[in-house]
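Figure 2 data, in text form.
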Amino acid sequence: MAPKKKTITDEIDEATAWPIMVSDGLPWAAGPQVPGPATPSSDLGASALSAIKNVLGWAYRPGADPKTLVGALNQKFKAIPRQGRVDYEYQPSNSVAVQADLGKVTGAQASLYTRAKASLDQMMILLAGLKPLLPDPDISEIEAIRSLVRNEINDVVQQLGAEGGPNVQLVDEAFTFLGGPSWGADDISASGTSLSFRDVGGHLGALRHGFGFSNRWVNTIDEEQDLTNFIVLVDYVNTVYESWKANRKYFDGTETHAFMGTALIQVSRVLAVIAETVDEVCYVCNTVFLGPAERQTIQLTYGAGKPTIFFADLLEWVRGFAADEGRRIINESGKDGVQTFTRTARRLKQLVEGALKQEPDNDTIPDAFRTRRIQVAIGNLAGQLEMAIKEARNIKRVPPPQIYWADVEFRGSNLLIEMGGIDISQDAIVRMGFGAARLTDAAAVDANAVTANYRYVTASTLVRAGFDPLDELRKQKPKKPYTGYLIVKNDDGQIALFELRGEDNEEVVNNL
């Protein structure tokens, strides 16, 4: 029996039946709280946490595993036995590391940030030492331009070292301000060219005009040195911009095979949000007088033959997974542990979603549990778990499959397919679907594709598959114009999409 649909009157009665949600700023935990460091509310506390993070590369989070702090200390301080005692010596790291609890700045971002950071000091020295060549410069104007350039260069470098990857929009905007429209987001491409000091626009161009950096105003060796310093500054910025163009694909979603360090920072952020969301669910429960003790009596059911779970236990499981278990799985097992992490997160998401679908005859469910504010809070928790699953999918042990060629032919009542490529798993499945020509959305084709009856993978480079009977394929075949596509999906969910072009392949597809 489906629950009765609520009317506007019911919604108003529900809203006025419970107290208005007011927070005193304290978190409402899912279960007993473990004493720990309080969240800093003063500038001194924030400064202390910032200093700890800068020295150890470790960021405090509520519910964080103390072992991660110990691990960060052991990495940064080396134990040296001396005359019956143990001294600890600080070991500064030359590598770019942001977090020690889960994830670091690695791969393309580390390379990009290291080069930009090494150039930053030189750029600041050159910028500060520039002197105007014009005989009557507007001092206030050129100092304002100098300040703008300084801030924009700093913004770029700081973003390149940001946890979880740089803000692509912010970096693009900063380069647009620095060099003008030619360095805008619409012109980011590996084939672009650097701008000379004479052609650069934006605030660097304004700096050139304001200071008079032109051979026309050079009369002495010292003045030519000032012009040279400006040319070197533009070259430094050009170098950072070229590096950004070459690596931007790793941060704008174009390159799906993300580096593990950056991907783990994103997973870590989502886990922190999940832990907070569990506290928010508990807080919302308290606002409708559904306290911790009563939450332990709410028994969630999931259909005949499936085990039940108490609502409080489910929340505690989710919070433990976000604050400890999920992080530990990936820390200890790396990429091999991601599959276990994803499976657990998916199971928790199913249980949380099931909490929204309790039968009306479940007499352990109080009316307060069915109020809109609790249902919305539980729905938000399910959404955050889905986000964790999505972020974890970016961490792959192997790259996605690729298909370079394919042949299809009728043989009797069978449609036989042979494909060649790389990185195809032994358990990969083969599917065939249809769509518009030059379609790049593999998920759209896969949604209505048909799975081959059998497939055989040879050495991850050759696939043979067959469809028999062809009725299902013919049902999916749309009206012209259309194009046939082959899909190879590895057991980790990564997809290769191949468009069946060419005279022979198109003839077979059209004759289905």
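Caption note: The chain is about 50% helix and 15% strand.
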